[in-house]
Amino acid sequence: MENKKYLNVALPKGRLGEKVYSYFEREGMEAEGIREESRKLVFENAEGTLRFFWVKPSDVAIYVERGAADIGVAGKDILLEYSPDVYELFDLELGKCRMAVAAKNDFIDDRSKTLRVATKFTNIAGQYYASLGRRIDIIKLNGSIELAPLLGLSDVIVDIVETGSTLKANGLVEYNKICDISARLIANKASMKFKGEQIMRVCRAFEKRD
Amino acid sequence: MSKIIDELPSALRSLYASAGYSCYRTVGFEEYDLFSQYRDFLTSGQMITFTGAGGRLLALKPDITMSIIRDAAQEKGRSDKFYYSESVYRVPAGGDEFKEILQIGLECIGDLCGYDRAEVVSLACKTLGMTGREYKLDVSHTGLVSGLFELFGIPAEVRGDFADALKDKNAPMITLLCEKNEISSDKSKKLIEFSRFSLPIREAVRELRALGFGDNAKSAEALDMLELIANTLTESEAYCVSLDFSVIHGMNYYDGTVFAGYIDGVAEAVLKGGEYGKLIEKMGHEGSGLGFALYTDLLERLDDGEISFAADVMLVCGDASPEAIAAEVKKIRESGKTVLVQKGRAGAERCAEVIVLGGEV
Fold it and tell me: Cβ(A112)–Cβ(A105) under 8 Å?
């Protein structure tokens, strides 16, 4: 695939990616057929300057770090968890939520015991508790994190909280906010050197959006 | 083997030798203590260690610079200039396992003058240019970053956090840090502009002087140095060198010009370098030191897409006599082609052309 003339954009599959793509559309940077139902994954604009591809949200940062994409949109949670070596150019203020510690309503933190923490975000949780000097046992899960304290697998969970309704529905409460999360425009460091003007044009288009 | 990796080392050796750099060779391992005291200078603090025959703890070299500093002479008015092409063993940034990395680089250590410093940057440009690809060298200076922080009133205790944000051109983090440290939103916006600042070096020096960077002692000195570098470069080199505040290497060790080089087609910096006077001081030496390393492992995919044949011609000799084969080989070689002789044509795809000499086996 000839990458030289294109600015390759990795968009996260789903609502966030579609919203981000609508900003490109509004700036006249749309790609033919991208809104149509199909199995196609790569879409190019008519001028041959932009190439979009849909990828799993958690993979966007890898595509950008490795240079398969020049820019992309990734959640701050992914950037904190994997620390990819990319430029974090802009906060899109989309997909806003927070990384938080949650536990059962009746949870009391017993500092004499190792805290069992279930999470998908092992690095974020590890760094957070290290900053508190708290001894923990991290239990890596890939989904249904809320189940862990209910079944006694863990004392707390570290997970993304948007409205808190999933926690509430499962009898859990948010104890501490670790950080705010939102979608970020990221860029490959080498691409900034060779396609810097194209990248900054996209960045400026996002900055002036409503 | 990639053609670039195959041919580049000898071309670079000639380049460095032409600037008076001599070859520095090491054994593959050193006393662990040499590296352990300054482990945060290394890309990764992890090392492959083992106990030597005499019971001493040894490490496979994670870095070459420290060995060269240790061995450099310390004499007023003298600078030692070495180049190397050596394997180092370390966990690459973001990696999770040790790798053997062939690193080619140079170090200029001792009582350095402005020209020594500028020459290293010029050699870094030439090194990147010898890959035959479009390249960019981003340059900054620790004095310039300090000057920027002073200009914006960034408190000393949070400068490390701001430096991390600059390094990633992280606009959201700069905004957050400014809010936390009660730095006005106007200043915050300007800092974000500086994080995105990237101009060819000559233009950048003029621009920063116009913005008042020359009024601050640290940044004035930095601008003088960068100007000297700019004046030493050829026109085409200067076009490829940009001043970029995001080039920040370990602030505990670097205290001068710092740079990172990129080649079109490689997703990360292939060359990193800078002046590490603080490391020299920590190692108890006089003077300063400046150098860079080219990470050749990152170049191995540059000629992807080009078919790499084992030889131009496969000579299938079958039952031909050794004399006939030798004559045919001589003829092919004289035509300027490389030749691989084998009995049958198995694996013929390894060569661009197949010539059958005798009856096939």
Answer: no
The pair phi, psi for residue B292, each rounded to 5°, is -155, 165
- Buried b / exposed e over A188-199, threshold 16 CB at 10 Å, is bbbbbbbbbebb
If you count residue pairs, one on A and one on B, with CB atoms under 8 Å apart, how many are there?
Answer: 61
Inside any domain, residue A132: yes
Substitution target in B136, B139, B161, B170 with the highest count of A β-carbons within 10 Å is B170
Domain range for A135 is: 97-180
Instruction: Give, for B353, the enclosing helix (H) or strand (E).
Output: strand B351-356
The total number of structural domains in chain A stands at 2
Rounded to whole angstroms, how far apart are CA atoms B93 and B102? 15
> What backbone phi and psi angles, to 5 degrees, belong to B349?
-65, -10
Residue A1 lies in a domain: no
- Give ipTM to 2 decimals: 0.82
Q: Are B93 and B43 in contact (CB under 8 A)?
A: yes
Same domain (yes/no): A81, A119: no
Query: Is A28 domain-assigned?
Result: yes
Judgement on whether residues A127 and A174 belong to the same structural domain of the protein: yes
Facing residue for B267 by CB, picked from A87, A188, A200: A188
Structure tokens at B123: 């050699």
Work out the percent of chain B whose per-residue pLDDT is above 90.
61
Are A36 and A49 members of one domain?
A: yes
pTM for this model (two decimals): 0.84
Domain assignment present for residue A85? The answer is: yes
Residue A189: give its domain's CATH number.
3.40.190.10
Contacts of A183 in chain B (CB under 8 A): none
Residue range A57-105, pLDDT digits in tens: 999 999 999 999 999 999 999 999 999 999 999 999 999 999 999 999 9
Q: Map B62-107 to HEC letters.
A: CCCHHHHHHHCCCCCCCEEEEEEEEEEEECCCCCCCCEEEEEEEEE
Q: Where is A104: in which H helix or E strand? A: strand A97-104
Judge whether B145 and B129 are in contact, CB under 8 Å: no
For CA atoms A72, A78, A84, A89, the dihedral sign is positive
